[in-house]
Specification:
Layout: E1 2-7, H1 13-27, E2 33-38, H2 50-58, H3 75-78, E3 81-84, H4 87-95, H5 100-104, E4 106-108, H6 129-151
Parallel strand pairs: 1-2, 1-3, 3-4
Length: about 160
């Protein structure tokens, strides 16, 4: 199972989701991998936001090694499931889909923990420290739900 996490710039939300999911995959010795990308390429090659790295480190999640990249059409072929952090990014991903099969791979990540509510992970970039902690908590819960589905081969 290959999982892709996607936000806008790939420096805050999607690297956090990537790091959290990878940690849980490793801890549970699952046959899965995770990556992250952004729908814009302005931060390509950059490390995650320093505030997100600090927040993740405080919760024991390593994301320092990650580097931003832009989501590309070929990602539909490379990944089994794609999680968008919000509706805007979901829409931008779907615009690149070549087929209904591609579209079926794309989901809002919080629908994993809040089924059918179409909630969004807020972008903490312009907020304070609490915004990064709130994002961590939302993504921790969502990745727990993804983990359970992975364990049950239900993803």
């Amino acid at each position: 199972m290959k999982i892709l996490m996607v936000c806008l710039g790939n420096i805050c939300r999607s690297p956090m989701a990537d790091g959290l999911m990878q940690k849980k995959i490793n801890e549970n010795q699952l046959n899965a991998s995770v990556d992250s990308a952004g729908t814009i390429g302005i931060h390509a090659g950059d490390s995650p936001d320093s505030r997100m790295m600090q927040t993740s480190k405080s919760f024991g999640v390593s994301i320092e090694h990650l580097r931003a990249r832009q989501f590309i059409q070929n990602d539909f072929e490379q990944f089994d499931i794609i999680f968008a952090m919000d509706k805007s990014n979901l829409s931008n991903i779907l615009k690149l889909a070549k087929s209904e099969k591609d579209k079926q791979k794309v989901h809002l990540i919080l629908n994993m923990s809040h089924i059918g509510k179409n909630l969004e992970v807020p972008d903490p970039y312009f907020g304070g420290e609490q915004g990064f902690i709130d994002v961590y908590n939302l993504l921790d819960e969502a990745t727990d739900s993804i983990l359970e589905k992975l364990k049950n081969n239900d993803l």
